[in-house]
Amino acid sequence: MTATSLFKPAAVAAALALAGFIVAPAHAAAPMAKFQAPGFYRIMLGDFEVTALNDGTVDLPMDKLLQQPPAKTEKALAKSFQKTPLETSDNGFLINTGSKLILIDTGAGSLFGPTLGKLVANLKASGYQPEQVDEIYITHMHSDHVGGLTAGGQAAFPNAVVRIDQRDTDYWLSQANLDKAPAEAKGGFQGAMVSLAPYVKSGKLQPYAGNSELSPGIRSYASPGHTPGHESYIVESKGQKLVLLGDLVHVEAVQFDDPSVTIGFDSDSKAALASRKAAFADAAKQGYLIGAAHLQFPGLGHIRSEGKAYEYVPVNYTRMP
Fold this sequence. Notes:
This protein is α+β, with helices and mostly antiparallel strands. The protein has helices at 9-18, 62-65, 70-79, 119-125, 143-146, 166-172, 175-180, 186-201, 252-255, 269-286, and strands at residues 40-45, 48-60, 86-96, 101-104, 135-137, 150-151, 154-155, 161-163, 213-215, 218-222, 231-237, 240-244, 289-291, 300-306, 309-314. The longest helix is centred in the last third of the chain and has 18 residues, at 269-286. It starts with 8 loop residues before the first helix and ends in a 7-residue tail after the last strand.
């Protein structure tokens, strides 16, 4: 091989091959996949299996919704490398007690736009079928919590009994309240009525009074303000405790640092503030696990106090045994 031939392309390729190098042919760039893994995350709580289910995310203008100066919201979000509109998770929680399969909140279904409505698909991806759900507990009757109850006008969970605080059913299923509501608020009533209709018709809607044991190891705890009958759910097994807060908190980057910040969705902001402060203080004192619908998926973690503020510590990723 001459010195001149070494600089010919064929000779260079041959020399590299002889040296043990493989020259791969060039390909066009692979197209971007642009999708996530299924949205479920699973932990054990004593003898109970808890599966967080993501219904999707929705962009919300938190600078307009949170009841504080917009610049303050933007500053708090920027501190956490976020901005408004804030991509906000919508989570439900599936509890397998060993004798019952219980779903807490159902996501938005088709009521809140195309980026939500994925809870049933993620439930299936997690290894369960909607027909297996025995009971559904609703924290409150806003569209992004009850919309997933139906699909195409039919019950999405055909064998499930639905349990909701009586104060919320009395308020949201009232035709009189719908009639007198301002135009921009009527959709909330209509969404609740449509979502619950199949269960009402079949006798599977069973309202309850607040602070009730609904199943062994699961009880409701009245935490009103966001809606008249907003409920938290306390789940306990083998000395381990999880409290599902529903919509007592919406924005991690703002409301843990300053729990006094309310949101425009609250029906009674003073009551909602009192419920949130009590929930944060108890969780920080007792050290139990909390979950919430709008914390970033999977929406599970602990709270610790930092003076008058709090810090949210998300769960560590864990394998299942």
